[in-house]
Amino acid sequence: MRRMRVAAVCGAAVVTAVGGVAPAAGTPGAVRGAEAVRGAEAVRGAEVGLAYHGSAGIVGERVDVRFTPHNHGAAAVPDSVVRIRWSQPLEEGQTLPARCAPEGDRAVRCRVGRLGAHDTGERIGLRVRLREAPTEVLLEFDPVGSDGTVDESRAAAERQRVLVLDTGDTYYF
Length: 173
Known about the structure:
Layout: H1 2-18, H2 33-44, E1 50-59, E2 62-71, E3 77-86, E4 100-103, E5 107-115, E6 119-120, E7 124-129, E8 136-144, H3 152-158, E9 160-165, E10 171-172
Antiparallel strand pairs: 1-2, 1-10, 2-6, 2-7, 3-5, 3-8, 4-5, 8-9
Protein name: DUF11 domain-containing protein
Signal peptide: 1-24
Keywords: Signal
């Protein structure tokens, strides 16, 4: 009985995602199981998988961060932005790269630009000064939506965290 309910719910989900009732087997336009699943995936749209790979290190009151954006997904991203948050407040009035702007006292937004499917973007380098010399700093990379807001539920799933210790070492992520 339980299996029958699960099958009925799954069948209803596929019908809803595809947008109608599949023709009966053997009739023109009939779709087999794997083809129906692929069709449902196409209707929902391809996934975007943004990730940032690079390095970070602490030198006194300064944190050097270099990263390259990657889209590991099957869909292009027309224009992307990343928010980088520090666990320590940033010093005010510092010069940032042209594509970056401060956001509050602990974050910077950087325009990544267009990324095609399975594409790599241009490397971004930041050198920021913190208000005080830390023994450690936590960096969080969050994707920013096309409307300029951070969707916290999406960001929580895609957030990258890098803990950088003041050891003189470079940390790779």
